[in-house]
Design a protein that fits this description.
The chain is α/β, with parallel strands linked by helices. The protein has 10 helices and 12 strands. Helix 1 crosses helix 4.
Length: 292
Amino acid sequence: MDLSDLRIFSAVVREGGVTRAAEHLHRVQSNVTTRIRQLEGDIGVSLFIREGKRLHLSPAGQVLLDYADRLLALADEARHAVQDPRPRGLFRLGAMESTAAVRLPGPVSEYHRLYPEVEFELRTGNPPTLSKAILAGELDAALVTLPIADALFEKVAVFEEEPVIVSAAGTPAIGKGKKEYFPRTIIAFEHGCPHRKRLEDWYALRDQMPERTIELGSYHAMLGCVAAGMGVALLPRSVLTTFPESKRLRVHRLPPGENRADTYLIWRKGAGSPKIQALRDLLAEQRAGRRG
């Protein structure tokens, strides 16, 4: 049973016979008759009671007609939804923890205002996890930092972050002075977090190695531990605006060449959609506004 068979069946019923149905569908009568008999053979029942050349809908045909009408209407709705250039439906978006907390509230609020037929579903995670979710069909797009496999994804830069190292207030300058200070404990997310890797690389470039890593699951928990003197962390400077105890922190800026991290909107190659394009346009417009 396929939709074309159901469409022919419905036309025969609505037009009152094979002849008019064939004219309506721009088919020859023999083709319509054959398709009806094939449909009956497929489902194993007679859909019409035949009296000479006249056809009367059988009880089974009446049952099928109700389903056929609903299936054809649903198919038309699906076709229109796929072809509709307006953003609509569920938008499964992934983002890094810092991006979701600091950068997304404004754009998502504006997106809702512009496209009320879109429903957001947000998932946070590190870039490798989010990239795999896109390839598995679990997410439509994600906001991540590089590196990203160019062969698999399309991407556009949407946010520019300044990564900084934070320590407890009153600690010495990190990595500077005659007696260079390198805290022995770092506080970070699990492996796969780009900010953790950046901090580990920062130590490695200076021939240093942290002795201990405390893994936590939120930036506020990390900053609370940093303020208490338990270690240092690296994170986007924008995150500090959400921490009420920032006066208890010392911010250490990174040297040029290490003090920038772009966030990209990525999606699977060939899988663009009106929802993704609308978000891309909105974020590009806001990025241009920030630069202006």
